[in-house]
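Let us practice reading a record.
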Amino acid sequence: MKFVNAYLLIATMVLAGQTQAQDVWSLERCLDTARTASPSVIMAENARSMADLQWKEARANLIPKITVNADYRYFIDLPYQLMPMSVFGGPEGQFKETQFGVPHNIGANAQLTMPIYNPQVMGAMQTAETGREMARMHEAEAREQVLNETMMLYRTAQLIAKQMALLEHRMTNAKRLVGNVEMLKEHSMVTSTDVRLVQHQLAKAETQLEALRLRHGHVIRSLMTVLGITQQEPIRIDTEPLMSADEDGQRGMPASISIANAQTMLGKAELKQLRMSRLPSLSLIGSYGTTGFGYDGSPEGFLRFYPLGFAGVQLSYPLFNGTVTSKRIARKKLEVQNSELRTALLRSQNTLKVQKAEDDLSISTRTMDDARTQMAIAQDAYDLALLRQKEGSISIVDVIKADDAVQEGHQAYLTALAEHLAAELELRRLNGNLQN
C-alpha cells in the first residue's frame, strides 16, 4: 500500500510539472494563436470570403437565366381598334371603331436569356478577380499587423520581466547592504541616518518592482486581447527574450506594397471594364407559354388556351450616352496613374527604411555587448565597495554611488536590448517576413 501511495504521489508531481510547463505560452504559440483566433484576422478572412462570393456572383451572370411569368386581366372595357371601312365595301380613307377580344385574358410563359457575348460581364469578372486578390492582400496585412502587435507586446512583457529580474538582483544587493549597516550600527560605527538611507534605497526598489509587476500585468492582458483569449487568469510567457534576426537574408515584400500593387491592378481592371462597356453585347433569348381567352356571357361561355413560343438573338449596342463613359475613363486613368506613383514611392521609402533598420540592428548589437560589459564591471565594483564598506574603509554614500552605477548599467543594457528587438522586428516587417 505504501508503494502504491508513493507511486501515486510521484505521478501526481509529474503531471503537475507537465501542466505547469504547458501553461507557459511561448512566442511561437502566441503567434500560431494570433494567426487563427485573433478577431482582426477572422474579420479579414470574412472579407476575403466575401470577395470570393462577389467573384462567383459576377461569373454567375454567364449562366442562362430563366424566368416564369403569369398574369390575369379582366377588361371592363375591351380595347378599341379602328377598322378601314373599305374592308366592308365602304369608301377609302374612312374608319370605324371596333372592340376586339374577350373580357378574360390569361397569360403564362417561361423566358430564357443567355449571354453569348457580354463585355460588361467579362469586365466585371476581371474586376472581381482583382478584388479577390486585393482581399487576400488585406488578409495578409491584417495577419501581419496582428503578428507585429503580438510580437511587440510579447517582447515588451519579456523586457519588463527582465527588468524585474535585474531589479530583484539589485534588491538582493540592497538587503545585503542593509544587513551590513545594521550590524555596524550595533557597534556604533555608522549613524542612524546611514541606516535610514539604505532602508530608503530598499523601499524605493520595492516600489519600483511593484510598479513593474502592475505594468507587466497590463501588457499580458493586452496580449490576451489581441490573441482573442477570454480566460480570466493571465497567461505565462517565456521570460528570456530571444534573438531571431533574419540571418538568411531573405527579402520579401511588406503587405502595404502588395496592397498598393493590388490597388493598381484593380484600377486597371476597372478602366478596362469601362472601355469594354462601349462594345455591343449579344444574347440568346427564347420564350414559351400559353395565352388563354375566356368569355362568360351568353349564349355560351368558354375558356380556351393557345400556345405561344419564340427563339432568337438580341443585340444591344450603346451608341451614345452623353460622353459619360469618356469622362469616367479619363478620371480612372488619373486614378491609375496616382496608384502607380504611390506604389513606386512606397518601394523607395521601404528600401530606405530597410537600410536604416539594418544599421540600427548592427549598432544595437554592439551597444548591447558594451552594456553587458558595463553591467558586469558595475557589479564587480559594487561587490568591492560593499566589502570595503564592511571593513569601514569607505562610507555609505560611496556604496550607494556604486549601487547607482549598477542601476545605470542595468538600464543601459535594457535600453540596448529594447532597441535591438525593435530593430529586429522592424526589419522583419519591412522584409515581409513576419509570417515566416
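A brief commentary: DSSP finds eight helices and eight strands in the chain.
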